[in-house]
Specification:
By secondary structure, the protein is α+β, with helices and mostly antiparallel strands. Helices cover 65% and strands 17% of the residues. The chain has four helices and three strands; from the N terminus they run αβααββα. The chain has a three-stranded antiparallel sheet. The chain is globular and about 60 Å long. The model has no long low-confidence stretch (mean pLDDT 92).
Length: 110
């Protein structure tokens, strides 16, 4: 139970970073974000993703564009704002620092 709690908190902590990173590649539709996260074995459902996308947009990190769809209603495609790219750059730096710290702290001495 304790390990599961910690694993959940770790995943939540990196989810925003992963979402920003996925969107930074190109304008992205929400279902494509979910597919990328599933491919990375970071399972997330729409009920988790949409509020997070709204919060990121409200914080000025994302913009969106409505695109007509041939198979249904228009789709909302997300892109990073200039501020979003700045935040992603900071998160990249922090991730590399944390990965180094964890690797260093958890490596067994011979």
């Amino acid at each position: 139970m304790i390990a599961e709690n910690t694993q959940t908190q770790m995943r939540k902590g990196i989810l925003e970073y992963c979402i920003l990173s996925i969107i930074s590649r190109d304008e992205t539709y929400a279902s494509d974000i979910i597919a990328e996260l599933k491919k990375a074995q970071l399972l997330v459902v729409e009920g988790t993703l949409y509020p997070l996308l709204t919060r990121l947009k409200n914080n000025g990190l994302l913009t969106y564009n409505w695109v007509e769809s041939t198979s249904g209603p228009p789709r909302k495609y997300y892109a990073l704002s200039d501020e979003g790219f700045k935040v992603l750059e900071q998160l990249d730096k922090t991730w590399h620092e944390l990965a180094f710290a964890v690797q260093t702290a958890t490596t067994k001495k011979k």
